[in-house]
């Protein structure tokens, strides 16, 4: 397992990071979730990403239980705050000082740890002054409850504003967590250039486009039984937009000879592709079976030649999403309750 520095910091994280968004506490039972975490540990994955909102806090609990007997200093644990949790009252969401202060304490309890390595703003909060949010994060860091600060799906301008405040407050804002894959490249035009200037890395989610880039979804065919597209607990909603585009699914099938030539599975090719971007510190992978973890980690350390990358671009063509405005759309303009 290769490790990379996260942003302009001394922190190294595993370039394949294990995430439990749509699995722990919802799709799979706790014993299977624990087996997946064990597989990640055995594969050399040291970084684990979760959020308080995943399965309405259950995902953090499952991850904390799975990691409780591991040497804490050998792990990098990330979690997030913003989306509604608990009974979803008026202050159970957003990036207010109240919600941040209460959420970090609850997350630490569920994760069974005294601190997280990275505490992330899950979205931008348009209803809370950014200064209030950043001061609250600074207090979390100074209290020793988080070592570094990150964000998720923030625009280039939002990153610049937050980085300026972080510098004033003398805390380290070192990461952004956006969606990024061969098919979803909205961050390349503005977010990545700004991040490179600010000393911020990307920890990307959905590098296999919700499973579309594995090639298992065929144009004109019903999704395979037991796949994410048939999951009624949230997975099918996330993948629906891709599955509605037969042209995209057809082009993905044309990537198979390229993967074969590289000696990779389709999933490994997709994960290796995002890791070719030097501003990407890690690709988050999830799993509903331990063998999926074992397969995905084979993408670590893979270098794809420029000729192969050019062929991927040629195959996918205008099926790729490149509009920078998609990042702005990711953050709700009013708080969700």
Automatic annotation (TrEMBL):
Cellular component aspect of the GO annotation: cytosol
GO molecular function, one term: oxidoreductase activity
Positions of the NADP-dependent oxidoreductase domain: 15-315
Keyword NADP: yes
Keyword Iron included in the entry's annotation: no
Pfam families: Aldo_ket_red
Region (Disordered): 215-235
Keywords: NADP, Oxidoreductase
SUPFAM superfamilies, sorted: NAD(P)-linked oxidoreductase
Family as reported in the entry's similarity comment: Belongs to the shaker potassium channel beta subunit family.
Protein name: Aryl-alcohol dehydrogenase-like predicted oxidoreductase
Organism: Naumannella halotolerans
């Amino acid at each position: 397992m290769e490790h990379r520095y996260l942003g302009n910091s001394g922190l190294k994280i595993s370039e394949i990071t294990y995430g439990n968004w749509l699995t722990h506490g919802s799709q799979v039972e706790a014993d299977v979730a624990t087996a997946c975490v064990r597989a990640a540990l055995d594969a050399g994955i040291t970084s684990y990403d979760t959020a308080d909102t995943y399965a309405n806090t259950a995902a953090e609990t499952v991850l904390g239980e799975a990691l409780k007997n591991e040497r804490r200093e050998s792990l990098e644990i990330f979690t997030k705050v913003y989306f509604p949790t608990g009974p979803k009252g008026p202050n159970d969401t957003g990036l207010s000082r109240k919600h941040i202060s209460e959420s970090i304490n609850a997350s630490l309890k569920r994760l069974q740890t005294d601190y997280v390595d990275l505490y992330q703003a899950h979205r931008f909060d348009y209803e809370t002054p950014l200064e209030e949010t950043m001061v609250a994060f600074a207090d979390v860091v100074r209290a020793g409850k988080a070592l570094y600060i990150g964000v998720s799906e923030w625009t280039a301008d939002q990153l610049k504003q937050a980085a300026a405040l972080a510098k004033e407050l003398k805390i380290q804002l070192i990461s952004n967590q956006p969606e990024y894959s061969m098919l979803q490249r909205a961050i390349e035009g503005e977010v990545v250039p700004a991040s490179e200037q600010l000393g911020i890395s990307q920890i990307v989610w959905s590098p296999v486009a919700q499973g579309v880039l594995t090639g298992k979804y065929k144009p004109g065919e019903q999704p395979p039984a037991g796949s994410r597209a048939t999951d009624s607990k949230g997975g099918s909603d996330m993948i629906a937009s891709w599955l509605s585009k037969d042209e995209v699914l057809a082009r993905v099938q044309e990537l198979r000879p390229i993967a074969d030539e590289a000696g990779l599975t389709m999933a490994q090719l997709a994960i290796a592709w995002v890791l070719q971007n030097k501003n990407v510190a890690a690709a988050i992978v999830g799993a509903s079976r331990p063998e999926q973890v074992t397969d995905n980690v084979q993408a670590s350390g893979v270098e794809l030649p420029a000729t192969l990358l050019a062929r991927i671009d040629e195959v996918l063509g205008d099926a790729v999403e490149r509009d920078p405005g998609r990042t702005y759309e990711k953050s709700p303009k009013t708080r969700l309750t």
